[in-house]
Design a protein that fits this description.
alpha/beta; Rossmann fold; 7 helices
Length: about 250
C-alpha cells in the first residue's frame, strides 16, 4: 500500500508535534508583508487540513488541494464546524487547477518533497504561478538534503492509545530519495490490533534546484531560510522555508 490510505485516520494523532498553530502564525505574519493584500489562500497538498482550517478560522478564503481522498475525508470532517470552511479539491500537485486566482499560496510539512520527479516539481511550480495573482506570495517548506541523508538506516516509533507506528528510512544517494517504510498497528473496537503497511518516498531537492525551477516558472525574490525563521539556514538545518513572489505583469 502506498500514499496515505491507511495512515490518514491516524495521521493527526501521530503528528501532534507538528506545531501547526505556530506555522499558521508564521504564515500570517508573511501575508501581512505581502504587496498584494491577502484575502484568498491556496493550501497545496493540505493533508488532513489543519493549516487550511486554521487559516479559514482567521478569516481567509481557503482553497485546499490534496492527492489523497483519505486525507481529504479527514480534512472535511475537521472543517465541518467552521462558519466558512475551506473548499477542498482532490488534485495531484502537478495537476493543480483552481476556480479562480488566489492572493497567496502555501504548502507545509514537506509536501513538495513527495514530488520525486523533476518534471512534476517544475510543473507544480508553473501551476501555482498560473493561479497566483501577480505579486502574490508563495511560501512552502521542504525537508533538507542534510536531514534526508541523515535519516538513512534509521528507525522511528510513534504511538497513541489507539495506534502504534514504526518508520524505517533508507536514503539512496544515486536517486536522492529517502524511502519511508511504515508499519501501522491500529486498535480495533473488538480489542484486536490491525496491521497495515505503507511506503513513502521523499526527494532531496537542493537549494539551487529550487531557485532555478521557481525562476523558470515565473517567480522572483526567492529566499530560503531556516524553519519558521528569517535567518539564513544552518548547515545542518532540518527544514527550509522558501518564500517567493510571482512576477508582476
Amino acid at each position: 500500500m502506498s500514499g496515505y490510505e491507511a495512515l490518514a485516520s491516524s495521521y493527526d494523532g501521530l503528528m501532534a508535534d507538528g506545531d501547526y498553530r505556530r506555522r499558521a502564525d508564521f504564515l500570517e505574519r508573511q501575508f501581512r508583508k505581502s504587496r498584494v493584500p491577502v484575502r484568498s489562500v491556496l493550501d497545496l497538498a493540505c493533508g488532513t487540513g489543519t493549516i487550511a482550517c486554521l487559516l479559514a478560522e482567521r478569516g481567509y478564503r481557503v482553497t485546499a488541494t490534496d492527492g489523497s481522498e483519505e486525507m481529504l475525508t479527514q480534512a472535511a470532517a475537521k472543517a465541518a464546524g467552521l462558519e466558512e470552511p475551506p473548499l477542498f479539491l482532490h488534485q495531484a500537485m502537478p495537476r493543480l487547477r483552481l476556480l479562480q486566482p488566489v492572493d497567496a499560496a502555501v504548502s507545509t510539512l514537506d509536501s513538495l518533497n513527495y514530488l520525486t520527479r523533476t518534471r512534476d516539481l517544475r510543473e507544480t511550480f508553473r501551476r501555482v504561478c498560473r493561479w497566483l495573482r501577480p505579486g502574490g506570495l508563495f511560501i512552502f517548506d521542504v525537508n533538507t538534503p542534510c536531514k534526508l541523508r541523515r535519516m538513512d538506516g534509521e528507525m522511528y516509533m510513534d504511538e497513541t492509545e489507539e495506534s502504534f507506528c514504526v518508520w524505517r528510512t533508507f536514503f539512496s544517494e544515486r536517486a536522492k530519495i529517502c524511502t519511508y517504510q511504515v508499519d501501522l498497528f491500529r486498535l480495533r473496537p473488538d480489542g484486536a490490533w490491525e496491521r497495515d503497511f505503507e511506503e513513502h518516498r521523499e526527494r532531496a531537492w537542493e537549494a539551487e534546484e529550487l531557485r532555478l525551477y521557481l525562476a523558470e516558472a515565473g517567480f522572483t525574490e526567492v529566499s530560503i531560510t531556516g524553519d519558521l525563521s528569517l535567518r539564513p539556514p544552518a548547515a545542518d538545518e532540518d527544514r527550509w522555508i522558501v518564500r517567493c513572489v510571482r512576477k508582476l505583469e
